[in-house]
Amino acid sequence: MPGKIETVRVALAERSYDIEIGSGTLAALPEFLRARTDSDHAVVITDGNVEGLYADAASDLLVGDGWEVDLFAVDPGETSKSVEVVEELWNVMLDEGADRKSIVVAIGGGVVGDLAGFAAASFARGLEFFQVPTTLLAQVDSSVGGKVGINLPGAKNMVGAFWQPRGVLCDVDAMQSLPDREYRAGLAEVVKYGVILDADFFAYLEANIEAINVRDAAILTHIVQRSCRLKADVVEQDERELTGLRASLNYGHTFGHAFEAIGEYEELLHGEAVAAGMRCAMQLAVRLGRVDEATYARQESLLSALNLLVDPLEADGQDLLRLMYRDKKTAAGKLRFILPSRIGHVELVSDVPEIDILASLEV
Ligand SMILES: NC(=O)c1ccc[n+]([C@@H]2O[C@H](COP(=O)([O-])OP(=O)(O)OC[C@H]3O[C@@H](n4cnc5c(N)ncnc54)[C@H](O)[C@@H]3O)[C@@H](O)[C@H]2O)c1
Ligand SMILES: O=C(O)C(=O)C[C@@H](O)[C@H](O)[C@H](O)COP(=O)(O)O
Ligand SMILES: [Zn+2]
Q1: Residue 91 to residues 50, 73, 85, 97, 100, Cα–Cα distance (Å)
Q2: Is 113 annotated as ligand-binding?
Q3: Are residues 122 and 256 in the same domain?
Q4: Measured on CA atoms in the order 334, 339, 341, 347, is the torsion positive or negative?
Q5: Any catalytic annotation for residue 101?
Q6: What are phi and psi of 3, to 5 degrees?
Q7: Is residue 34 domain-shared with residue 158, that is, in the same domain?
Q8: pLDDT in tens, 72-99
Q9: Complex ipTM
Q10: Helix (H, G, I), strand (E, B) or coil at 208
Q11: Cα(29)–Cα(107) distance, integer angstroms
């Protein structure tokens, strides 16, 4: 039986939607969709790991509810966020007769969500899209806010769109089957919210390490709910990252995306790269005199308690810098960094000397 369901509303005028979060919610997928669309054709996109764990059963539920369902599983992992795989999806959707009345349902982690969302945004100029995130990272971050897209070999998330889902259904029970490394990678984005927006949430994480490490369902429901609320508040005010507010969600990502790209998307998971990137960004803030050593130490200590003290990838500094210049926050050819001034508060900073950026790779 589902436990308490938390609902987070993302208020974006005609693009508004609910995120429903709880234990056992997946069983209610047909009702969740029915309440939000008139469609009866679902293109379910998943990956080879999630297919047998959750997507097959979810598709059976939909078929039982009278839906026509076409299910496609891509290879698991970041390398599926590519032009080749999205082209494959477009062709499969065409062959299966998807049209503007069809919906796309992403069941999986952030890779599936970003990829399926981009297929939904672009096929026939846009299909209704739903997210059923099954990783912690996807439940707290990637399924919310409408950034969808794919990578280019030299630049992360470089081709994409803003395409909001019509609804997001999070079942925290899915965390139980997640490999340890993937679970911890998701926690990196959770720590990010504490650092950038909410000192109380940061303290809550510090106080609940044990329960987090054993994946307690009630704690997870709260963590997912609070993370989604914090992200939704930002997205509601700056949906398309125009004012600089949404850029705060990119804390640690200028370094992190460079680590991912230099490792050809195979060395570090996104969340691991973000953890390493947050360490570098905090270090940079210390070097620039924007934050004190104690704050650096506090972030290090929480990351350590969550087994997330990830080191930056060993690579030539100039190569990393070149990759950082492809960051989407770059303005007028200049890098911009999200840097903390205290726990719970960050600023968008330009004119950072390259020498300090390079020195910050030593954490
Ligand atoms: N759009 C956004 O706003 C946004 C935000 C953050 C991250 N992202 C993107 O998200 C991606 C990372 O997402 P991710 O960390 O979820 O990775 P992922 O999608 O690769 O999933 C991680 C692994 O876990 C497996 N898996 C998924 N759910 C499972 C479950 N319940 N049990 C067992 N195995 C399961 C997957 O098959 C995969 O092997 C990156 O591409 C990143 O750029 C996007
Ligand atoms: O939603 C956002 O905005 C974020 O920045 C969230 C990030 O965690 C996420 O990794 C996002 O995909 C990065 O966006 P990008 O624009 O830097 O590619
Ligand atoms: Zn991220």
Answers
A1: 22, 14, 10, 10, 15
A2: yes
A3: no
A4: positive
A5: no
A6: -80, -150
A7: yes
A8: 999 999 999 999 999 999 999 999 999 9
A9: 0.99
A10: coil
A11: 11
